[in-house]
Amino acid sequence: MTDANPAASQPLRSSQWYGPDDRNGYIHRAWMRRGVPGDAFGRPQIAIADTASDLTPCNAHLTEVSRSVADGVIAAGGVPLHLPVMSLGETNVRPTAMLWRNLAAMSIEEMLRANPIDGVVLLGGCDKTIPALLMAAASVDLPAVVVPGGPMLTGTFRGRPLGCGTDVWRLSEEVRAGTLTAAEFTRSESAMIRSRGHCNTMGTASTMGLLAEALGMVLPGLAGTPAPDSRLLVGAHATGRLAVELVAADRRPSGVLTRASFANAIVALAALGGSTNAVVHLLAVAGRLGVDLRLEDFDALGSRVPCLVDLQPAGRFLMEDLHRAGGLAAVLTEICDLLDPAALTVTGRTLVDELDAARAAIFDPEVIRPRTDPLVAEGGIAVLHGNLCPTGAVIKPAAASPSLLQHRGRAVVFDSIEDAHARIDDPDLEVDADSVLVLRGCGPRGYPGMPEVANLPLPRKLLATGVRDMVRVCDGRMSGTAYGTVVLHVTPEAAAGGPLALVRTGDPVVLDVPGRRLDVDLPATELAARSPAAASVAAYARPTRGWEQLYVEHVQQADRGADLDFLVGSSGSAVVRESH
Ligand code: FES
Ligand code: MG
């Protein structure tokens, strides 16, 4: 057996399967011969964890990408192994893809550990796929690198570019307001999804692809490359080569994903105007590594960072424009002094050194604003506390209406999303532009899975008068493509005993984003005397078997990343027992 891994001082992990000259070694090798040369078993075995699926259209092209990765692995002397893994299509999966993120992470983690592999290339795109892959890789801690599948190209409808997601919300509100016909709305569907790739707004998929690079887990310069762009395949090939290098250098996620890397991701999240969903995903990944990352860190490290990127939903442009304008490197170079210089990347060099070497420039200052002229002076996530959210809630001020950031209004309470849909357009609903729409029962436990419903539709009668934003408060999430003055991820959620369950229609709710407060203006004695609203309690999920039951019994609150309590931490890659 030849060792094609001269730099490795340790035997390859896969040699535990393929090395022994006994019956078990025979079994492992014989079924994997597949026509490969005899020395293949001494080379680094690189899994290509592929989330391609016809039911995850955003990732459907990844199998083609995996072939470029495989070519790169072979070119560097490794053996590529295509490993289809659980995939989550954000637009298809009910009741919400978030319910299955931890299941995907758990299944991927176990398959990486159980198989004879030395390193892994992680192919993701659609919202939950990169978080699940990162959580899995962190818990196994084998050498790993991400290829983000990239955004789709910009489609236009009636001469106007369409932002995935963001313009669905906008166009559907236009239909509700009577300024767009239902037939025109339907006609815009194929313009919305013009090519393969994930959503082209600064939604969760774009955010997590770019943050994977800011974390150091992507070949520098690759994230944000549009899915149909041949440069994605060039980067995939180079990543395949890099994966073999990672094994030789024994460079693992635990050495890359340090607190310094998470600090950089939080700064990048703000500068990009990224999705609020990144908060739960980054907290969950950090939890897998034992990195002490708290919800409050997002405010402390990121809230005062300028948002430089003028992309929907906070701004005007789309991901193709960001790539053309200089991409992530141009954005991070502009705020390089805010980055932690110690954070390493998969290349073995620091993120800051990689940025220095890239000599990135802003090619379109309309899309990537210079530091001196930001889109929003303070672009990050604000973390609120108060008697409605004792352990925290978040708001993205850059996507909110400035006039509503300090607001007092009367609560209009909905006990479930179905309750909201049934009553929101009722002409007799007692609601005005100053009301605060409260939606509960949408947390990880209550729904279950913490769906993206926090950006409740506005009452039709108010839309008709020109109202386009109202303060909304919810224990669920909001699509990264959505916008509005929405306080979300309220913790504890109503179904976990949070005070949100005690609010009644008519109660005065006070939002003070500059003061970082969200309160119901009632005496503590009054709140303490109340019990959770019966209609709210009746709407909470009560699964009696399977994954949903396991999830509801073990899921942590959003301020802990909504991971399952028993999945927090790492088990490493050791498997001590044989299969036969
Ligand atoms: Fe897949 Fe938006 S639906 S990224
Ligand atoms: Mg989403």
UniProtKB/TrEMBL annotation:
Its EC number is 4.2.1.9. The keyword Transcription regulation does not apply. Signal peptide: none annotated. It comes from the Bacteria. PROSITE patterns: ILVD_EDD_1. GO terms for molecular function: 2 iron, 2 sulfur cluster binding; dihydroxy-acid dehydratase activity; metal ion binding. NCBIfam families: PRK06131.1, PRK13017.1. This is Dihydroxy-acid dehydratase. Residues 43-353 form the Dihydroxy-acid/6-phosphogluconate dehydratase N-terminal domain. Residues 366-562 form the Dihydroxy-acid/6-phosphogluconate dehydratase C-terminal domain. PANTHER family: HYPOTHETICAL DIHYDROXY-ACID DEHYDRATASE (EUROFUNG)-RELATED, HYPOTHETICAL DIHYDROXYACID DEHYDRATASE (EUROFUNG)-RELATED. InterPro entries: Dihydro-acid_dehy_C (IPR042096), DiOHA_6PGluconate_deHydtase_CS (IPR020558), ILV_EDD_C (IPR056740), ILV_EDD_N (IPR000581), IlvD/EDD_N (IPR037237), Sugar_Degrad_Dehydratases (IPR052352). Keywords: 2Fe-2S, Amino-acid biosynthesis, Branched-chain amino acid biosynthesis, Iron, Iron-sulfur, Lyase, Metal-binding.
